[in-house]
Specification:
It contains nine helices and twelve strands. With 347 residues, it is of the alpha/beta class. The strands form three sheets. Strands 3-2-1-4-7-6-8 form a seven-stranded mixed sheet. A three-stranded mixed sheet has the order 5-10-9. The protein has a two-stranded antiparallel ribbon with strand order 11-12. The radius of gyration is 22 Å and the shape is globular.
């Protein structure tokens, strides 16, 4: 009797050029989100995020969280996004009610509030196991950000005391990776307030132990966290990368801490300090890396060593973005003024 032959193997699916966008959009395991207002200026910034992500081949959805829009602004933003690839999304969130010391709406509080609103009401929903990277709207992608971005030491730069914090090969529950910033560990300052315009001392222990908060055993009050040591983990800023399962309690806590932080600090640092207190309160010790961005050429703790290693004749070559032989920071954070000097000229 003749032996029956197995059926031929199915041909591998072919993704034509028209289907590339569908392929990118279909992977919901990694989200990039950023918080904005509704101005035309932030419309322009949003296009910068979307287009730079497309340029470097970033996979997965990229969502703008626009807070406090009027009906007219919402309609205009929806129209502009309708012309973009499907994975370029927008989520509309309510405006914050937090006020600064002058009685004006503290717009930076929209970042945690918008994040919480998006996690609760995103369409489609965000599964708990999704990796979520929160960036700033004034960032351009230079390299894609993905699950394997930190799976080998040569893929990132870590310096100083942060070297002692193990890098998770993949983001897992209870872990976070974030960019190093020079904000220090101010919330763990146990001294009195002596800065002009600052209403209250931080007194984090007193605040968390108060009857209203009732968190006297919070991990944020661990004995090893002092003004000096806290910076090892919490002198951080965007990008912040964690699982959605951690982001929801984190954003909720962050939102609730905003009034307290605004009373103790001025400007956008209040939002950043509320973020790190919320993170510490959940028992998360982030891995603080240098190489997620470059911004201030005079600052340490950024990805400039990789930029400095580029050949001078290729420093402005856009083909660098497609050349894997060169390391680049993931983002350029264009919140600083940059100039290029040439002999006898400045531009």
């Amino acid at each position: 009797q003749q032996q029956q032959q197995p059926p031929p193997a199915a041909a591998a699916p072919q993704i034509d050029e028209a289907g590339v966008e569908d392929f990118y959009a279909s992977d919901e395991s990694y989200h990039v989100v950023f918080s904005t207002g509704c101005s035309e200026f932030q419309d322009w910034q949003s296009i910068g995020v979307y287009s730079s992500a497309e340029r470097v081949g970033q996979r997965g959805p990229i969502t703008r969280i626009a807070s406090g829009c009027t009906e007219e602004q919402e309609a205009a933003i929806r129209h502009s996004v309708s012309h973009l690839p499907a994975r370029c999304r927008v989520h509309f969130a309510p405006n914050t009610e937090v006020r600064d010391m002058a009685g004006k709406v503290y717009k930076y509080a929209n970042k945690p509030l918008g994040m919480m609103h998006w996690l609760l009401h995103a369409d489609p929903p965000v599964p708990p196991q999704t990796t979520v990277a929160l960036i700033d709207p004034d960032m351009f992608f230079l390299r894609p950000l993905w699950h394997d971005s930190f799976d080998a030491p040569e893929k990132y730069i870590v310096t100083d005391g942060a070297k002692r914090t193990p890098m998770p090969p993949r983001i897992a529950k209870g872990t976070m990776v974030a960019q190093r910033y020079g904000i220090g560990g101010a919330p763990w300052d146990r001294g009195p307030s002596n800065k002009p315009g600052k209403k209250k001392a931080w007194d984090l222990r007193g605040y968390l132990s108060s009857p209203e908060v009732a968190r006297p055993h919070s991990p944020a009050l661990a004995q090893d966290l002092t003004l000096a040591s806290a910076g090892t983990w919490f002198s951080i800023g965007a990008p912040y990368i964690a699982l959605a399962a951690d982001w929801l309690p984190l954003a909720t806590n962050w939102t609730g801490l905003m009034p307290m932080a605004v009373e103790r600090n001025l400007g956008n640092l209040a939002e950043m300090y509320a973020m790190v207190i919320a993170t510490a309160d959940l028992g998360i010790r982030p891995v603080r890396v240098d190489s997620l961005m470059v911004s201030d050429v005079g600052a340490g703790g950024e990805g400039w060593p990789w930029v400095d290693a580029l050949p001078e004749n290729r420093a402005c070559d856009p083909k660098i973005l497609d050349d894997p032989s060169f390391r680049l920071p993931t983002f350029v954070h264009y919140c600083q003024v940059h100039t290029a000097h040439t002999p006898g000229a400045r531009r």
